[in-house]
Every structure is written in structure tokens, then in C-alpha cells.
Write a structure and sequence with these properties.
The chain contains five helices and five strands; from the N terminus they run ααββββααβα. By secondary structure, it is an alpha+beta fold. The protein has one domain (about 25-105). A hairpin with a 4-residue loop joins β2 (about 40) and β3. The mean pLDDT is about 80.
């Protein structure tokens, strides 16, 4: 049986978990090297070099990077916690400064 759009909303309601997940704001996170060896991950925006046990914040855009997702899936890096808005702004600011330095060269 196929449900039309209206029937779907009536049956499941507009406040289902799926509906909420589609509209939530993605946050950055702090990741940690859980390997006993140094780990280097090349993202689209930058390259992360993490020593064993070292943690680093990443932006909400970097969270969706396929390379990072593969490394997290292999459990070579682990997620510590989501970052606050202030921490995310600091990460974006450091990335902007890094871009400016590259342009000057």
C-alpha cells in the first residue's frame, strides 16, 4: 500500500524523529586519536596531524568529509563531544587566518 504525502503526515505526524533530524543544525565536534601511533588525516579543508591521545576540534562542514567518516568508522579516531558555538567560531577563525597566510605566500 502506498501512502500519499498527506496520508504519510497524518499517519506519522509532522514531528517524527525523521522530520526533526532533517531540520536540525549540524554541529562540529572534538575528535581524539585513539590509536597508539600518530595519525594524519587529509580533509578537504586542512590536514590534521594527531599524536596519540591528542584531541582537536573540527567544524560542522568537516564532520561530513568522507575521509573523516571512514577513519571514524575504522575507530582510528574517536568522537569526544560536540563543540560549542564559541569553539566552532574559534575553529573557523583559525581556518580563515590560515587561508590568509597561504594567499600572502
Amino acid at each position: 500500500m502506498r501512502l500519499g504525502h498527506y496520508a504519510w503526515n497524518v499517519y506519522f505526524g509532522a514531528d517524527t524523529i525523521l522530520h526533526q533530524c532533517m531540520h536540525r543544525k549540524r554541529k562540529g565536534m572534538i575528535i581524539k586519536n585513539s590509536d597508539p601511533f600518530p595519525r594524519s588525516v587529509r580533509l578537504k579543508t586542512r590536514t590534521l596531524v594527531l599524536n596519540p591521545g591528542e584531541a582537536v576540534p573540527i567544524t560542522s562542514q568537516e564532520v561530513l568529509d568522507p575521509i573523516l567518516l571512514d577513519v571514524l568508522q575504522a575507530r582510528e579516531l574517536s568522537i569526544v563531544r560536540p563543540i560549542s558555538e564559541e569553539e566552532e567560531e574559534a575553529v573557523y577563525e583559525s581556518l580563515r587566518k590560515r587561508k590568509r597566510k597561504r594567499r600572502r605566500r
